[in-house]
Amino acid sequence: MFALCVFGSAISTSTPAADLDAGKAKAMSCAMCHGANGISQMPGAPNLAGQQAIYVEQQLKHFRSGKRSNEIMGVIAKPLTDTEISDLAAWYESIKVSVVER
Amino acid sequence: MFALCVFGSAISTSTPAADLDAGKAKAMSCAMCHGANGISQMPGAPNLAGQQAIYVEQQLKHFRSGKRSNEIMGVIAKPLTDTEISDLAAWYESIKVSVVER
Questions:
Q1: Residue of A5, A29, A43 lying closest to B8 (CB–CB)
Q2: What PANTHER family has UniProt attached to this entry (chains A, B) (predicted)?
Q3: Which of A49, A65, A84, A96 lies at a 20 to 30 A Cα distance from A34?
Q4: What residue ranges define each of the domains in chain B, with the CATH number in brackets?
């Protein structure tokens, strides 16, 4: 089964570089569920450590717009600005994870 | 800001144990986007390595039902059975990841 993988929305190259420190600070309010280092502390809340910034950004915008629905994330994402979203996404992507070989 | 974290749906304790080998075999058709070891190979496709089984299971069921919309995942999840979903979710959770301290 050949699956054509086109996930990424058009990547605009003009967005200013994200601020990792601001992202880290903002992520403190996410830590209760997603963990201080992005490893989930709550069943049903995904790990975010090392997750692609483009994916996290996309999902936060979907939660903010309602395109993706979740009671908690809909409330949390609503007030986020584009800059805060991009800083959060960059912060989580910056957390390096490695797969432990079996 | 206190965020009440209630993500997990009721965890039924009677479901049969997932089959990791079957999950690994099924995940081969996901590897082009999500990577053979669950580390994404495609912008916009999330890493799944070490992701919580309850979260992966929930999201695959949402894609299958249409509660969560994505052109690719809607097509891919549609034919999946509950058993295949639980095997896939268990497989990805079984991939151990560690956060690389900074």
A1: A43
A2: CBB3-TYPE CYTOCHROME C OXIDASE SUBUNIT FIXP (PTHR33751), CYTOCHROME C4 (PTHR33751:SF9)
A3: A65
A4: 20-94 (1.10.760.10)
